[in-house]
Amino acid sequence: MPEPSKDLKKLLKDEKAFEKLKKAMFAGIVFSDGKIKVHVLESVKEYIEEGNAMHHCVSGYTLKEDYLVFSARIRGKRIETIEVSLKTFEVIQSRGLQNHNTEYHDRIISLVNKNMHLIKERLKPKKNGTKKDANRIPQTIDLAV
User: Would you call 3 helix, strand, or coil by DSSP?
Assistant: First the structure.
């Protein structure tokens, strides 16, 4: 059996570090305004795929501790990648292909801001003192435009 490549070893190491950041509690967050669908990136592999597809450096954000990254898409096509602070609950940046803003930029930021409560809910302790269950059914909310 061949030895795993250095890139694969790094990916596996980063995936373990990513899991330790406890970002799994945000798994399944998805929301839409009927045209734009936004979902949280849930693995190092998804960060890498997003960065490769959008030709920007989001894959370097995988191990940023207090940030969450989302992908905004229309009919499955990536439009912009959004970074949200888990400390301030603000959109830090939203970038399209090669770090450019798209015609949907303001709409995407507004959509994320309107759904920031979904992130906050996951951080609230449950009655037994633990965080919300990350393995529950994904939350999808459609907002009329």
Answer: coil
Mapping DSSP to helix (H, G, I), strand (E, B) and coil, where does residue 44 land? helix
Strand 139-142 and strand 29-32: the pairing is parallel
| pTM beyond cutoff 0.85 | no
Domains by residue range for the chain, with CATH: 6-142 (3.40.630)
Burial grade of 68 (CB within 10 A; 0-12, 13-18, 19 or more)? buried
pLDDT tens-digit readout, 102-127: 999 999 999 999 999 999 999 888 66
Residues 39-64: b if buried by 16+ CB within 10 A, e if exposed = bbbbbbebbbbbbeebebebbebbee
Alpha helices in the chain (DSSP H): 6-20, 44-54, 105-114, 116-123
In this prediction, residue 19 has a pLDDT band, given cuts at 50, 70 and 90, of confident
pLDDT-derived band at 130, boundaries 50, 70, 90: low
